[in-house]
Amino acid sequence: MKLPPLHIQSLTTGSRASIQEMTGPASSVSNDSIDVGLELARKLEEAIPSSLGRSELRTSVLPAIIQAVGQISEALRRSHHVSLAGTANLFGDDQLNVDVVSENILRDALRACPTVATVSSEEDPVERANQATATATATSESTFNEKYTIAFDPLDGSSIIAPNWSVGTIVGVWDGCSAVGLHPREKQIASVISVYGPRTTAVVAVRIPGGTQGSSCFEVAYDPNKPHAWVVTHPSFTLAAAPPFKTRYFAPANLRAAAEDDRYRQLVTNFIADKYTLRYSGGLVPDVVHALVKGHGIYLSPVTAASAAKLRRLYELCPIALVVECAGGEAVEPGDGGRILDRALKDVDERGGIVCGTASEVEKAMEVFLS
């Protein structure tokens, strides 16, 4: 996370609001009180029917994540001063106060979920035992057959939050007690990506291997006046499979790479010549969600020798890839065209590029990248 050149002050100066002031009064979410409203509860029941035996995923884990999104939204609206927190994560990235707040909200929410065994994040990239599971008694442990690992980026795009641009949260839900060394196509069973903009929305994707339900990808919206009544705004996202398209969109990230890679430069030139509409905000989540809402789009973030990979597979690429695939699109590695979800996760800091979105557009782009 690189900070933009703007007036940023450290929390240690005493001139900024404290993290406690940003989050408001201390609150906790108990496993018995996770309420996301009847509309969303019904949608989760549709995506994860009781026959799959994933009741805790449906009634506890995903609701806790979604409610945390609402709490992060409220905290961001109170965070009028974006500042350095005076700390760095284990990757060496400087942390903003809003990064720390978002991290704490999600971790507190997940502690209410006894089936969440392990949690890691881009701000604390170590798979640690979730407090709720670590302190559970043998009796309560035996109550649940489900165990999940949660990996998240609490505030993706925080480097563009100071000018009040839209940012997001990215969460991946993995089956079992770890994600490292496993194949995401088999073990990552759900993801949630949220956008904090004029409205707060969350896209939920679910695909459970071996189930007969198939995949599900839908959007819900947060109502600050009714924080426990999430509204289903898009019951199902589907990226159009093939032309004709009413409007064609492209989002070229890491555009500096075009100065070093003739193929990327040619691809961007082709988009312009073919009258594609540019939709790039600098935020991975809002740009991908734009494609979902419009039913068409391609997001590109290639990697070159001079422009090193920045996106982490565990915290960003794999959850985004699941969302895109559940909407009928494709998400591939720009280097070799392999599907992101088909490659086992090496470690928490493994990084890469991505080309994702409408399947036919991804295939056309990869013809150029692999030429």
From TrEMBL:
Residue span, Fructose-1-6-bisphosphatase class 1 C-terminal domain: 246-367
In terms of InterPro entries, this protein maps to: FBPase_C_dom, FBPase_class-1, FBPase_N, FBPtase, Fructose_bisphosphatase_AS, SBPase
Which SUPFAM superfamilies does this UniProt record tie to the protein? Carbohydrate phosphatase
Please, which domain of life does this record's source organism belong to?
Answer: Eukaryota
- Assigned protein family: Belongs to the FBPase class 1 family.
Residue ranges annotated for the Fructose-1-6-bisphosphatase class I N-terminal domain, each copy included: 55-218
| Pfam families the UniProt entry points to | FBPase (PF00316), FBPase_C (PF18913)
Asked if the keyword NADP belongs to this entry, the reply reads no
Give the E.C. number(s). Answer: 3.1.3.11
Main EC class the enzyme belongs to = hydrolase
Organism, scientific name: Sarocladium strictum
The chemistry this enzyme catalyses reads:
beta-D-fructose 1,6-bisphosphate + H2O = beta-D-fructose 6-phosphate + phosphate
Q: Which cofactor does it need?
A: Mg(2+)
Q: Where is the signal peptide?
A: none
Which PROSITE patterns does the entry link to? Answer: FBPASE
Which BP terms does GO give this entry? fructose 1,6-bisphosphate metabolic process; fructose 6-phosphate metabolic process; fructose metabolic process; gluconeogenesis; sucrose biosynthetic process
Q: What is this protein called?
A: fructose-bisphosphatase
Quick one: which pathway?
A: Carbohydrate biosynthesis; Calvin cycle
GO MF terms here are: fructose 1,6-bisphosphate 1-phosphatase activity; metal ion binding
Q: Which GO terms describe its cellular component?
A: cytoplasm
